[in-house]
Sequence to fold (241 residues):
Amino acid sequence: MEINKSDIEKAKKIFKDLEAADTERARAYSKDLLNGLKKVRTYPQGVTIFGSARLSENNKYYKQARLLGQLLAQNAHTVITGGGPGIMEAANRGAFEYGGRSIGLNITLSHEQHPNPYLTDVLQFEYFFARKVMLAMSAKVYVFFPGGFGTMDEFSEILILMQEKKMPVMPMFLVGKSFWRPLDRFFATRMSPLKTINPTDRKIYKLTDNVEEIVRAANKIGHPKIKTNYYDGFREATEKL
Fold:
């Protein structure tokens, strides 16, 4: 069968266009990551707080997150969130009203896309994965309030990174025992018996209703200097184990 030269040229052009598109996409990814890494180095690692963007200020979890933000600011801890409404707004609000450092790592979405008004610093992201990297690298303590699929995604991301020792194991709290207990029970009664997780994996996180417990954990770690990060040298250290 004779190959048509024009078809070959068309195929070459298609592959060339695809390669150019992939290169441009990689540059966009890199830009998001580099901008985030630069921003992370401008404030000390603090407490990253996750949770639903859809809870109003009358909700009990909103009130708890606001109190937590205030207590963290009182103890000189930076408060970091995804920068949106709901739980994120509440935590930022508590820190902002006290005069603390209130960071928002926001992302453009079809809804819930505007940064909340309680931020001292804001960084806009285009890509979820780059934003999640920064939310992880920003923190010395991780806090998860009740939320939806996004919160579950972020919880799973941090959990697996700690489980597989891809990041330092740091304090990780799930606020709202009544909300999180069914999920924890699922891990214990479904996953553990099948040996899809180890029983000790559930010790990575802790269920709590007491936000002061979170502040004590942050105080125990202390206040790392700006431009230092618990990730620095972590890979080299684990490779030696």
Q: What stands out?
A: Residues 36 and 134 are 6 Å apart (CA to CA). The two ends are 59 Å apart (CA to CA). The chain has eight helices and seven strands. The longest strand covers residues 102-107.
